[in-house]
Amino acid sequence: MSTPAAPPTWRLLEPPSAARLDAPEAWAYHGVAALERAVALADLGHDDLPPRALDMLVGDLHPGHVRRHRLVAVEDGADGAPRVVGHGVLMLPVTDNRHLAVPRIAVLPSHRGRGIGSAIADRLRRVALTEGRTTVFAEVEFAAEPAQGAPDALAPKEGDGHVSADLPGMRFARRAGLALELVARRSVLDVPLPDDVVDRFVADAAAHAGDAYRVHTWQDPAPERWVEQLAGLERSLSEDEPNGGLELEAEQWDGRRIRDEETKRAERGKSGLVAVAEHVATGTLAGMTLLVFAHDRPELTEQDSTVVLPEHRGHRLGMLLKAVNLREHTRVRPGTRRISTWNNETNAPMLAINVALGFRPAGGAAELQAPLADVVPLSPA
Ligand SMILES: CC(C)(COP(=O)(O)OP(=O)(O)OC[C@H]1O[C@@H](n2cnc3c(N)ncnc32)[C@H](O)[C@@H]1OP(=O)(O)O)[C@@H](O)C(=O)NCCC(=O)NCCS
Question: What is the percentage of the chain residues whose pLDDT exceeds 70?
Fold first, then answer.
């Protein structure tokens, strides 16, 4: 005779919304941030990536382009206050990519294997169905690729890179029916680079680009005269980035969206440092690159979007923009120790520039996708 299963110690609930982090109802933002930090330290060995409570709150307060549906799994703590042991968020793009449902699910290592992740996944699946979404896209981050030839190494449908099929997140996502489409590489550059090294990158690239282009840099906000053109560059990036078989639509950008992003960065205590290349003859922008940093995290900066318009490629503008922005970054953030970035393994030209600058591989993410109709419930019926 089998012993009856013990009742679960946890329950799922929709966390209360909050206007500020110091409000009592903001407990879930603090709980989820602590959980994501614990998960990152356990699974990845660092906490460079997890969102802070303020990052999440600001995203929820500005649902302009992405709505978020949140769930938390809680236990009653010793003091009677809820303790977050699992969480899920379903991101629902609203401006473009309205077919997508993008879940993120994480459970404290001490609470895994009890069905919490499955219960969250099933609830988010139902939300995605109710919202009329048709494609699920999810990422599973990893600390390092498996050794070459390892029996659990899984190759994506397109591009280089491998991921271990034994990672809890990979087992989970594949059990739900998601397939590995691509691997994204995370890379880290130790900074500051010596001035003469950066100057050489700038000089070599400038020699190729010639006098046809002029580089401008600024820290948020962008000068008004460039805002609409920046939106065009972001749109071009989302059209051109090699995404393999991922069903990602070009994003709709306009000047207002650029300003929205700047506002959100400011509210998150962050700034963007931008370099753009102006095509002198036409007075139009040929390319841009963006570094983003949090003022309360001086040691770390994120390398965000970089794009050069197709008609201006082949003049080393990508390298020129990145090198000029690195020089500017050293000036405004001399204490920063590392710059972190992401590239799809299918994006050879961007990876080549990063490798030349000295970025080294530092883990990555598996990018998985499935038609929502094929996603299977994970909890026992
Ligand atoms: C992926 C993740 C969310 C799973 O959370 P979880 O709460 O352990 O999920 P579950 O308990 O529902 O399922 C995990 C395993 O436990 C098993 N399980 C579920 N309930 C169980 C129970 N009551 N008793 C024994 N095993 C159980 C499941 O069958 C599953 O087995 P598998 O690994 O062979 O597929 C968690 O590992 C995690 O946070 N990983 C890091 C973040 C991540 O990669 N997220 C996924 C991408 S969004």
Answer: 99
